[in-house]
Design a protein that fits this description.
globular, 3-stranded antiparallel β-sheet, Enolase-like, domain 1, 3 helices, 81 residues, alpha+beta
Length: 81
Amino acid sequence: MAGLAMMHGPKPRIVWFALSDRPVRARAAEAVLEAGKDDDDVAARATEGVPVFGDANATEAMKRHLARQLLARTLRGLAGQ
């Protein structure tokens, strides 16, 4: 499971829940988003630098995959696609 909170605007903020032992900002993805890069580039960096722990529900790899997908869908939704 992965949870996402996002503030979009001139200083975007992306925070992950349930990937780690505490909420964690996705600073690499924020920087790419703030630089105006393509949404796919932002999603590709969804968990870069973020400590991700596997648990009884999902492996680390699955959580990273879900985080990328969730961020990509969120960005598409914000863009109205």
